[in-house]
Amino acid sequence: MKATALAHPNIALVKYWGKRDEALILPHQSSLSLTLSPLSVTTTVEFGASHDQVELNGHTAKGSERDRVLRLLEAVKAMAGKALGPAKVVSRGDFPMAAGLASSAAGFAALAVAGRAAAGLPAEPRAASILARMGSGSACRSVQGGFCEWQRGERPDGEDSFAVQRFDAAHWPDVRMVVAILDRGEKEVKSRDGMKHTVETSPYYPAWVQDAEQEIAHAREHIARHDLEALGELCERNAWRMHATALAANPPLCYLNSATLALIQHLREQRKKGMPVWFTLDAGPNPVLLTDAAHEVAAEALARACGAVDVVRCVPGGDAVLKAEH
Ligand code: 2P0
Hints:
alpha+beta, Ribosomal Protein S5, domain 2, Alpha-Beta Plaits, 2 domains, eight-stranded antiparallel sheet, binds ligand 2P0, EC 4.1.1.33, diphosphomevalonate decarboxylase, MVD-like_N, lyase
């Protein structure tokens, strides 16, 4: 009735931006990401508690945050097909919010894996990925390590919308992602609201969907061949296209700031001098740099020279795992 799981966050190389079903969290297009170590979230689920309790990073969760967790566990209970009683959930990330990467992907992946185990359900990446997706879309890509592809699926019930692992963490041990924190502030428009607004008002949205879907196969080829330059170029153009789609919304959504642009400019100059470094950018001002092991220290120095207040160097991460209970 009790289980603990650890999961890593992930960074999308081909981004997810926009839902075709808000309730089930079904995307308009597929996406592809790399799971990141050493950052992680550890979550314990215990059924049979006196009442539902959700503790996230030492705080009692309330409102929609709490509802999202409990809704996922209701789906677990339905799958188990037995009365499991109220749930106690304790979740803690080893990276501060200041890391710039949302902890929700790792958190919901760990919750799905721990929730299934606590309910006596077998370890099944596909089922765990579908569950994690219902908490937060990008979480479905954190159930497994390495390079994972969230297939949009076709079915209205979402049973074919989950992430599959294309290459495990050992496929490309030399690849590095360097998170550059330029701004620790909360973003003004959350991803969930920003993508909805983009779907509803951006005239570029259909082109975004078509392009992103096509890029998946290209990304897969570049990863298979360990072609950092081709993957870097793809990663940058996909990030630009996601931001261009959001910028074309009405009113426009701009997640970049002047420090973001300055870093991107500097990175281009370093690349001209022969440094293999590219960027991606989520719904916020903090770029994540793609490079290799030989250049991760130089990539960190580049980020700090551009005003990064914190830098986290990441390597490919592994699967979400269950931990022994004591
Ligand atoms: C991604 N992002 O592919 C994209 C790129 C942000 C930019 O997935 O509403 O927290 O819970 O499904 O997964 C962030 O959005 O949104 C995200 P919901 P989520 O990583």
